[in-house]
Amino acid sequence: MLTFNKKLSIIIISIITTIIVIVGIILGITLSSSNTNEDTPKEGSIDDNNLHSDNKDDISYFNYKYPTQSHVGMASEYLGTTPRNLPKAMSNGGLERYPKYGKQPDFSDLNSDQIKDIKTSIIKENNALVSTGTSNLNGSYDNYDHMDENGIFYKNNEVLKDSNGNPIKLYKHTASEGMYNGDISPEEPAIIKKIKINPRGYGNHITGLYAPPGEIIKVEISELDLSQIGSTSIFIGQVLSSGKANNIWLEREFVRMPTIANKFPLDRKTIYIGYHLGGPIYIGTPENKKSFSVTISGAVPYPHFIQGYTTEEEWEFNLNSTAPYFDLEIWDDSIRFSGSRKAAGEWTYDELYDCAVLWDKITRISNSIPQYGNVNTGIVMLYEPFVAAGAAVAFQGGNTVNAPESWMKEVLDVQNFILNGSWGNIHELNHHYQRYGLPNGTEVTNNAVSLISYSLFTLISSSRTIKNDYTINNWNRFTDPLYVLKRLLSNVDNEYSGIYSLAAYATILHSFGQKKYIETANACNGNTGIEIYYQALTNSIHYDFTYYFEKILGLSISSDIKISMTSNNYPIFIPVSSVFQVGRNYFYDGEEIFIRTVQPFEISFDSPYTFNVLSDETFSYPSGFTVSIKAITSPINGKLESNDNNNNEYTYIPDKNKEKSGEFKVTLKIVKDDDSSIKINDITLLLEFKAKRKTMPKRTTYYYHDTQKIYKHVSDAIELKYTGYTSVIDYELSTPALWYDGEGIELNCVTEYNAKFFVTTTNTYRLALRGKQSNLSISRNGGQQFESIITIGDSFINHYPESIEKKYYYDINLKKGEVVYLKVVLLSADTTHCFFEIGCSIQKDDNTYEIPTIITNTFQLYSPDYEKPIYNPDYFISREYTGSEIVSPLNQKLISGENIESWDDTLKIDNLFDDKSSTYFHSKKNNYVSESNPFTITVDLGEIYTINSVILKGRPANVNQSPKFFKFYGGVDLENLVLIYSTDDKGSSLTNGVDIEFSFNTTQIHYYKLSITGSYNQYVALNGIYPSITGNEHSPDSLTYIGNWTVHSTFSPYGHVYTSTDSNSMIQFTFKGSYIMIYTIAGESQSFSISIDNENYEEVSISSTFEGYSYKSKLLNNDEHEIIIKINTRCTVASIITL
Q1: Which of residues 633, 666, 691 is at a domain's end?
Q2: Phi, psi angle pair for 356, to nearest 5°
Q3: Nearest 5°: phi and psi at 497?
Q4: Helix, strand, or coil here: 1127?
Q5: Predicted TM-score of the model (pTM)
């Protein structure tokens, strides 16, 4: 077995979205009370008073670096290595040319008919390589459905043979060279990996394994698991979530082989898989959504990151693989980024964790909007050379995006996203979440969803400035409320199809905030339409949007709808916006609510800043109204002074010791010019300033008024440290390009330019210099020491080919994460050809270089003082999970019943209590259930349980015979059962067509009685009755840990657990509710003590085989409670349930 350290054998497992533990079948738990109210704590224990100490240094808190909110639904265990089945040679079907991954064949010597013929032949040959059902292309051909351990293909259990009668076998195709932009080393070891999957409802599951081209891979599954899951498929290569291949058809460029995916049915205990082109291996979703395990032998690992369970050790282990693929996934209903390792780029574990957290936040927003397709499954972003339509395409309903490889690195770059976004990626993602709003807006409503995430999770809006650029279409500018409203009120959008509507949506976002925007989208109920959106806005926000729709958007509302909406007498919505605003107020049924959608407006804090609140350049509102300032407050930091000559003008005096002014408010009065009687609420805008970051490279110029002291050679100026200058001035460049032409040439000067860049990809780079009398130096130690690498004297080097020819270049190996400082010194004793420019090129795979181009094409240059901004906002929408403990039917015993006679012996009443999904009870023929003839059973649970819900599992059949009207009684005394739940006049609600789940106040029962007085079709048919306790599940990351703890990946709700064996360690947790349960996994025996609200500690001891809720409290007052857990020998926490 492969292990990564003494503490960790990579075992990564999970459970389904709702934790369900069936009680009564796992033993090994002991509870006992102990009085710890002693005057002196026991030796080795912690005094509880330390938890409340004012001196936090008294407490040693344990903080895990990589907390998550998401469940994980898979597990893996590395079992060792195995020899690979290396192909002896490559082969093909004999065609004269084939595509390579990312490059179509050279067809320059062929006419159109010849090109069509050879492409048709490639398709035909490719079709013969894949198994039955893989390709979507037309054509009739005999394909295989299985393969044996020797790589021989079978169809319907018969060997497939070629025209010579020889068995057709798997081989390595020549087109597999460079597949996914790389090749696997023949020395790369194959591994044996066991994978456990608790399947999603749709799509496929990462294995982290890659099938080398032409090599035979073994897949094993137990007979029990195979019988339970029904059927599923194993895929090799990139596939859509639907399981289909993303095929290239005849009319498109063949930038790879037409079909690069293959699949095999997992229908036997042992199968063998492989593909001529190779690729990553995925496991499909089985017919029956049951947990199962497979063991795969002969494949190689590839770098993949699954949030919540991939450890840093496993990441580093897989990173050593030569397999050319990469996956990053947030497992539960979120997103996967999938593509070649080269396209993904180079990332550290911490960077991938940050990326996963960011996109988990983003997809929580997207998932809050009505979705196309499978609503409980995330979106797979596939990056590859072929794009089926446009620049990228979203397969709505198929939970997949097909995007170009060039987009992949950008989507993983958190720093870039925070500052610049990634519009193409998020636009295609949100094509799956756009079922709301105005009609004909499918390219717009998704953009509005993207703006929600931009407003919450980026700093893009902080780059807005005062300029009338609203006529320029720029997606990022929609984060600026002023740009949005000016665009909306102008006619500019008549030139851009669909953009007009985005301004309409963005105005709502900036006026009422993200929460109300999402609420309105859901109020459309998955539909679009003018009046649908009009009513959704009115009903959700409680404003009158008639003026907005009719006068601003130019849309008509029917009189009936208008009357019904305006009769509420809600305040009229009149949009206003300021370039300085970070948010604003609105009123909801009289309550004032403030929202924020924008970052602070950046200004220089070096001097006072004068601004006009209501100028045409800084403020916008519809014509026909008068707006005036009613009041303005002082900022939290700095001072605000009014201008006596202009009531709308103010001067902000910054506090240079603070980064921000803090919020201040300006309240505006709005009056309609032609009817002042119309009531319009005052609007209060939140304003805030922030010190502008200096990002551009610096220029320092030394002036020599005495021309006799100016240097003749740049090297002399550097050696003598510019001695003799008359004056010196510091400048900030207007652009990041390090070249003097754009900044102006000054005579008799020495100018020093300073910049730095961040290395994002490990490689060898060629730095070149062109110009005259210039010197380039670099520093790799934070700017402490510089090394001179290139100097140009009086020779004028005008072009980079000349720079290379005359050796004015320097090759340097740089590693990802390095920060390189640049210093260029330019001597301008005269201005003839006096300039410099730095060029850069990257070493190619064949160790050659392209001719350099300006360095800003390779690196973004910054001020030497620039530091990357840290911006990690909280989740706007947090994940919410529930956990349940269900009373197993095996623990239930029938005491008595009425009308419990069955249809026949196969459908008897005992089937309700066998806990088998395939057996059912069905009431006797012609014995129709009714109020006068009820079906009634009384059941003993064997002990007292705390419950708050019951599931009645029905019988899937052509005729639904689930209970519609019933009463449920319960209690601890058989003779005094009380009514707990009763259906109303409408009857029960079906959760999935046949099952019924109902909830009630938490109570304790030992016995229950179910009386059914009506069904959906005369009879009663049930699979089982499942009383349960269900509450809110909390990640183990949400608890407070004190002392020594370790975190490791294992079979648990969130993919990892916290463990301590230190008796000085503790857990603290506060919750509001009336009940708590602690979920524990099997592995080691445990003993710990728990106290609620400082009461006596209760000791919990569980065996190494126990898995489930190790602790269940008594019913508590519905109030805030503090939990303290002390370690006796060991404690492992997987999650906590409260209600």
Answers
A1: 691
A2: -65, -40
A3: -60, 125
A4: strand
A5: 0.91
